[in-house]
Design brief:
heterodimer, A: 230 residues, alpha+beta, two-stranded antiparallel ribbon, 9 helices, 9 strands, 17% strand, globular, B: 183 residues, 7 helices
Amino acid sequence: MYPTQDQITAPGQRAPDFELKTASTESVRLSDLRGQPVVLAFYPADFSPVCGDQLALYQAASPTFTQYGAQVLGVSADGVYSHQAFAQARGLQFPLLSDWWPHGRTAQAYGAFDDDSGMAARALFVLDEDGVVNWSYLSPAGVNPGADGILSALEAMAANGKTVAANSKAMNRQASSDKAMNEMAMDEMAMDDVVMDDMAMNEMVMSGKASNAKASNGKTSPAKRKGKRS
Amino acid sequence: MSKSILEIRQGQLQEPINDRNNTLGNENATVGLVEYGDYECPYCAAAHPVVSDLLRLRSSAVLFAFRHFPLSNVHPHAEFGAECAEAAGAQDRYWMMHDWLFTHQQQLEPGAVGTAAQQMGMDSSALLQAVSARTFYPKVQHDFMTGLRSGVNGTPTFFINGTRYDGVPTLDGLVTAIDAELG
């Protein structure tokens, strides 16, 4: 059955640890990501139309997630080769984790597994820097939950001092900008990098942090400008 | 729905219709309808005549605003289209360009847009220059960010009086939802 909201890992609980393979067959262990917020997006399957929209949306939102120092991870019970094709088709640059074998074990640990269909439920978890769930949300299988809940949760955590961002805003900005650079250096496919950079900046303008932001994240190096349409 | 510690209400429009938006309809209407859309998205193109019919049927009751939500990782020409529409707006032809873009989704490139702009009586070289200078990029990105914060979950996404409309965007569906606001 498709789970219900009260069956998924609730706020205040420690997020179950896992180690899963990404599309590039590297392993990601959740507990290695302590010290930064983590967004776990469980979704039913690669290539189903709603999922595509949801994950493509998170890719488009990734500069804003980066601004909070947050790492986004997509998780489904698909295999790594399916993830590879899906990431390429949708231009996804954040890791997609394969919960293929033992099938759906991680989704089950979060109460986010539909044991009728054998797929993960569409569930979101926003973890703080200590790996504790701060917000979780179960969406109906056919409904893309959007990014607003995640962003509101990250913002509230930052305001409550539960993230790196709140403890040291300047450090975080540096960290996220370094991280963005590393990601781009590692990922030759990095597309829309300028869009990301400017968007992150735009978001800061919106939230009234423009003056400080311009001094750090807002900078756009010539290398990053390459992808720009002219 | 959620009993999380953080009380988060999703799917709420974060920026009301304002004078920076491209709008159609009655300024003093009871119902504000906002669409977040992408000029390269086939579902938005399908919704385009629906919105036109809707505005004809409820012309005095609705103020419609279109905001940009280009998903560039899946639609590589969407951002270009959005900036062309805004550049046409600078020459008072926003809605003409908007209609053209949705009916010529396979032609989102400077040559075709320039020719169309000329036929609409615009200074096409000024339009293309503004687009290549990225003059309207900040405006398009502002729309995108407000959409992200409001719970836009794909394109098109509609908000009726500030609340996300989660039904299928058919004429019947939208008219029913709007009439419910009219009471």
